[in-house]
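Take a specimen:
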Amino acid sequence: MATINNLDLLPDNLPAPRDDGAADHLRARSLPPLALPATDGSMVDLSALSGRSVVFIYPRTGQPGVPALVEYWNEIAGARGCTPQTKGYQALAGEFQALGCRIFGLSTQSRAYQQELVARLGLPFPILSDERLQLARALSLPTLEVAGQTLLKRMSWLVQDGRIVRVRYPVFPPDGNAAEMLAWLRQEPA
């Protein structure tokens, strides 16, 4: 399967990730007190936020005109689809906001790298950087190693007052994740 250059599209034969149980321990888990750099210039400690938040986690975004991290990126189950996943949240941001829910993206890419995505797509929410893998290690998050880089596996959380109340793992297809999380949010009492 060749890597396609249009980051907005998902190939028809994209391999689906399987649930390996690597996120089962996250349900009902309190988030550790860690401040992560956000693309808006702030530091965000998810454990200290009151109310509801959705955190969508992805391996890494690509950049237009830049080759994929590896030529077989599309063949790695769960790797492809970071831009479609993000655009799903962008399209539904107003509905999340109307329900009093913040949105955060999260990857191991640097804040500077993530800022390209935020600027290119005009995102109305920040992306958090776990470049130092502090959150990944504190929560034993599922990861994958590609080209010498540790990347987070795709998942999403519904967080209430610093505690993970719902976990979606694995996420597939990535472009439907925001709608699924919005439906879950509507089921959870505020």
